Structures are given as C-alpha cells and as structure tokens.
Amino acid sequence: MSDIWTGEKVRLRGVEPGDWEGFRDLARNPVDVRTSDLLEPPRSDEGFRAWTAERAGRPPGGEAFRLVIETLADRAFAGTVTVGETDNRAGRFKTGIAVTRDHRRKGCAAEATELLLTYMFAEQRHHKCEVEIHAFNDASLALYRKLGFSEEGRLRQHEFLAGDFHDVVLLGPTAPEHWAAHPRPSLR
User: Fold this and answer.
1) What confidence score (pLDDT) does residue 34 get?
2) CA-closest candidate to residue 104, choices 17, 9, 18
3) How far apart are CA 111 and CA 106, in angstroms?
4) What is the residue-averaged pLDDT of the chain?
5) What is the model's pLDDT at position 36?
6) Between the CA of residue 158 and those of 38, 128, 177, what are the distances in Å?
7) What is the dihedral of CA 71, 77, 79, 82, to 10 degrees?
8) Which of the four, 44, 111, 136, 144, has the lowest number of CB atoms within 10 Å?
9) 136-176 pLDDT, tens per residue?
10) Which residues contact 67 (CB under 8 A, 6 or more apart)?
C-alpha cells in the first residue's frame, strides 16, 4: 500500500514543537494573512512556541485538525493544511491551506490538498469538501478551480477585512468528482 500522506513533492505530517518558526513566518505578512484569515496583533516568539507546542500535543485526527506540509527534497516547513467544521452526519468537511512564500507556485498547495482529500474521502468516508475563499484571492481561487472544485455560491459582503466588506466564494468537490479526476489509492 502506498503512503497516503506522501506525494511526489510533499508529505503531510503532524505538528511538531519545532515548527513554531514556520507558523511565525506564515503570520508575519499582514497581506498574506488577510487573504485567508483574520489579522491579529503580533505574537511573541514565546507565544508561537507555546501555541505550536499545544497543537503538537493534541491527539491526531478528530473532527478538526491541522497538518504540516513538509517538502520531500529538503524537509522544509512549506505550510499547513487544516480540516475543520466537520459534519459527519452529512459527510461534509471544510478545509483550508496556507503556504509559505518560498513554496508558492511550486505545486505544494495542490499536492497537499489532493493528499488531504484522498484521506478524507477514502478513509473517513466523507462525501463533500467545502472551502470559503475571499473573492479577491485570485491565487487560491485558481488553485481550487484547477483541482476541480466547483463554485457553489457567493456570500456577498460577508467578511470585514482591511477596512471594507468583501465577498466570499464557496467552492467544493464531491467525492465522485474527486475520484473522476484522481485515481483512488491502491492497496497494492
């Protein structure tokens, strides 16, 4: 059986306490943070160490979890992918991704997302993935569309960022749509 967590460029792994610098670097650029999340006041290095150590101590899996994206070539911290707001009854989950500036446009985000979808669809029996992307985030919209996510709607003036209200675009694939574009994992 192939390793479900490893692709050609990256592997997904649990958070380690030493990843604090990677998480700090992801949070350093306010422009990057605003494309995907709420801008928070600066956190100290010790704050990042404590935050990361707490996450490293959490049990794996569950209804919401975070994995580190690590490059195979040099084992560098390339970002993080999350699962959240899981609805086991309906078979839905939300996902999100953040990739470091040095690893953008190199296929890391696409491969990490595909690995996560394979796990959630093939192992956790979910039927649908959902993402919410700010309408101004052209790079993320292009990534998810390239991966076969279909636009399902738009929440108008839904988020307040940088002094203005912005639309949020809803996208997602179903498991059959994902399997049509990507072969199921083999047990051999």
Assistant:
1) 65
2) 9
3) 10
4) 91
5) 63
6) 13, 22, 28
7) 90
8) 44
9) 999 999 999 999 999 999 999 998 888 889 999 999 999 99
10) 12, 13, 14, 15, 80, 81, 82, 116
Residue 136 in tokens = 């101004």
Q: What does the pLDDT read at residue 161?
A: 83
The pTM assigned to this predicted structure is 0.91
Rounded to whole angstroms, what are the CA distances from 41 to 33, 44, 62, 100?
A: 11, 10, 29, 19
Tally of CB atoms within 10 A around 151: 13
Q: How many residues are present in the chain?
A: 188
Rounded to 10 degrees, the C-alpha dihedral 8/13/19/23 comes to: 80
Over residues 27-36, the mean pLDDT reads 71
Percent of the chain exceeding pLDDT 70 equals: 93
Q: What is the pLDDT of residue 162?
A: 80
**Residue 8 to residue 113: CA distance in whole angstroms:** 13
Q: Which residue has the tokens 């040099």?
A: 74
Task: Give the SS3 label for residue 109.
Answer: helix
Quick one: which of 64, 57, 48, 35 has its CA closest to 137?
A: 35
Strand partners, 169: 133, 154
Cα–Cα dist 79/73, whole Å: 15
